[in-house]
């Protein structure tokens, strides 16, 4: 690519020389004119290159976001299927007619019971304590907590959750540490807040 830019600039320089001579420029005036034309062309090429790089970055970001959204939806669908299987296995002879709204394993039910994290108003430490208490109350296995958490966070917390590997041991505890660190919860801030 550097070669083609060099050739382009060489051609621009030659064309500028011809134009300058046609305008009857000579000596320093001709050199200044040619230099100005070449500089403008270099700036134009830089702008094109920067726009192209920005476009490629935005394209990569959109593809990454789409991939993360697909992973989140796949995880939610898998949880829903697991919940349906569990619900199907738990029905008894009296034809239990529990609606999805009342099923503690459904996303809809969880969303009604757990308030989403608001970066502007909520403290991440307090939110995670409430979240853990609710998940324990609902008898949700801790292995699923990190994946379920994605549906209740936004902004920086959502980015951290989406980039987290949910299949490692103690996934939720690792994610919790990442979130607390990201929001500045460490020994120093704890002492300032409570002592």
From TrEMBL:
It comes from the Eukaryota. Residues 75-100 have a biased composition (Low complexity). Residues 53-73 have a biased composition (Basic and acidic residues). Residues 53-107 are annotated as: Disordered. This is Uncharacterized protein. It comes from Biomphalaria glabrata (Bloodfluke planorb).
